Amino acid sequence: MDISNERFEFEKALEIYKTCIERIEKVNTFYVSLQTALITLFGFIVNQAKDLEGSTIFAIWILAPMGVVLSISWLLAIKKQYFDKEKIKERLLNLEPKLGMNFLSYTLYKQKKAKYLSTSQYEELAPFIFILLHILLFLKFL
């Protein structure tokens, strides 16, 4: 493969990598907004609409399981985006030595030496927290 073709492929892969990161941020924003709205609606129905017959039952049997399903779909969406990002990252790491670059390799090396959880681990934790929250709400008002 010609160096100019490899450079072009590297630039395109880098654009796709950045797009994957942006998609992950959008997925997280979307699902956090949905979860917040769902929990707010749950609280409103249980606390403010007690005089409406069956509203608490609706909140318990519909909204809580819906929140769990949304959390699971959120987790799957995150995993899919990270899978795509990892595939692109592998390609970038394979192209770097051919082009005499090492920025991505150095960045990943620095991240591995850090003693913190990676961003992906935090992002995968959030859906589980919401699953737990919905289960606790379900059990509390059951």
Write the layout of secondary structure elements.
Blueprint: H1 3-48, H2 55-99, H3 103-113, H4 119-140
Notes on the protein architecture:
This protein is mainly α and 142 residues long. The chain has one domain (3-140). Helices cover 87% and strands 0% of the residues. The chain contains 4 helices and no strands. It has helices spanning 3-48, 55-99, 103-113, 119-140. α1 runs antiparallel to α2 and α2 runs antiparallel to α4. The longest helix is centred in the N-terminal third of the chain and has 46 residues, at 3-48. It is rod-shaped, with a radius of gyration of 22 Å. It starts with a helix and ends with a helix. The mean pLDDT is 81.
Strand content: under 5%
CA radius of gyration is 22 Å
Low-pLDDT sequence parts: none
Q: Label the structural class.
A: mainly alpha
Keywords:
mainly alpha; 0% strand; 4 helices
Can you summarize this structure?
This protein has 4 helices and no strands. With 142 residues, it is mainly α. The chain is rod-shaped.
